[in-house]
TrEMBL record, chains A, B:
The lineage of its organism: Bacteria, Bacillati, Bacillota, Bacilli, Bacillales. Residues 9-164 form the Nitroreductase domain. It comes from Paenibacillus shunpengii. NCBIfam families: PRK10765.1. Pfam families: Nitroreductase (PF00881). The keyword Flavoprotein applies. This is Oxygen-insensitive NADPH nitroreductase. InterPro entries: Flavin_OxRdtase_Frp (IPR016446), Nitroreductase (IPR029479), Nitroreductase-like (IPR000415). Belongs to the flavin oxidoreductase frp family. Keywords: Flavoprotein, FMN, NADP, Oxidoreductase. The gene is nfsA.
Length: 247, 247
């Protein structure tokens, strides 16, 4: 175990921040580290909007489901998949030729690129003593978020990330047992089933501890609740309207 | 600058490995670190197949475009988005209710989840002195890869990752200037355009240095070449056939 692995193993999402700033130097260091993540053929198909304007943060918090920590964190990052910059660069050199920015492949590439960069940013931030939480809620009203931030076509907000000095130390959340996610030379359905049953007990104990006995849900129960909710069904139409995934 | 940020800033993709093993202990440490990455509502919608069987590695190398380092690395990881495990867990608790695993939202969530976990794995591996390279080529013949690894429906191979002891030290590849990817309180198209022009010069110099003067392409030229190629157009149909993104 080295310091970096120790840092990775101690990740917690932070939802309460001290009233202290994130400096420009810290932000630039974090984003520079993000940029060094791998990128498919060096396309670097992402952009990040640093939101520090408090009015704008309030509007985004409201669009993302009124999560107070979006207003309270000093910097709110909106991580965007960005094929606009790529297409602009490409068409300046490929006038008249057909381009393929609108494929499911390139949607997938851009979504992967932004996630790899954001995870580097998360780790860099935590190594500086800052805390983060990913905010999927910015996809709740994605068209409004895109308009508010002036996103061009071929850019979509993938997730937000609050950034600030932690003012809480939550419990570590136990993950699935290693053999539930790590398969050897082929996918093992039976092992997965057995390990999920084991994890159901682990997570139910964790929920009881965290809620002082009020919650006892297993992972399977929580996943059933989540998967039976019709969440963000408008995403497909929004993405197509922005030029993504037409084929 | 701390050790972790120093590690992130020195990432290079490694495509040549020493004939030395990756131990089970190293692999377990790397995947455990991967599991601590954030996951949307704790869905943990990914699996990873560790391929060490040399016959299987050869077949995957062949399917991914005959990249020798896939055969030569001691462990080849295939990172998969996995909504199968989630649905199996959920339907055991939600018999009869409609479930929404087939949405574009859940495709996106699973693709993000696997990328966040994989990037943690990459960093953990590098902190242990190992090298990695992401392999998008496993999407070239994705149906064959899925069959070879026995992937159930609702599981797709997102990318591969070679893992091994580095036997090369490539140049650091310069990234886009920071202001090309970092926007303040809104997307800035004009700044992006200016910064890409600047990067074109930087990357052309880097290509010349790396190729001893034989290559001089700018980033815009490389992106034009990439974006005019009809890459992996079968992905959409494959994903739909596996139960993804039906709505």
């Amino acid at each position: 175990m080295n310091d970096t692995i120790n840092l990775l193993m101690n990740h917690r999402s932070i939802r309460k921040y001290k009233n202290e700033p994130v400096t420009d130097e810290q932000l630039n260091t974090i984003i520079a580290a993000a940029q060094m993540a791998s990128s498919s053929s060096n396309v670097q198909a992402y952009s990040v909007i640093a939101v520090t304007d408090s009015g704008l943060k309030n509007e985004l918090a409201s669009l993302a489901g009124n999560q107070a920590y979006i207003q309270e964190c000093p910097v709110f990052l909106v991580w965007c998949a960005d094929l606009y910059r790529l297409r602009e660069a490409a068409v300046s050199e490929a006038a008249g030729e057909e381009t393929y920015e609108d494929t499911t492949e390139n949607y997938t590439v851009a979504t992967i690129d932004v996630a790899l960069a954001a995870q580097n940013a998360a780790i860099a931030a935590e190594s500086l003593g800052l805390g983060i939480v990913y905010i999927g809620g910015i996809r709740n009203q994605i068209a409004e978020v895109a308009e508010l931030l002036g996103l061009p076509e071929l850019v979509y907000p993938v997730f937000g990330m609050c950034l600030g000095v932690p003012d809480q130390e939550p419990l570590l959340r136990p993950r699935l047992p290693l053999p539930a996610v790590l398969h050897k030379n082929g996918y093992d359905r039976e092992e997965t089933r057995v390990q999920v049953k084991e994890y159901d007990k682990t997570l139910s104990s964790y929920m009881q501890e965290r809620s002082s006995g009020k919650q006892t849900a297993t992972w399977s129960e929580m996943m059933a609740k989540r998967l039976t909710q019709p969440a963000r069904l408008q995403l497909k139409a929004f993405l197509e309207s922005k030029g993504f995934m037409k084929r």
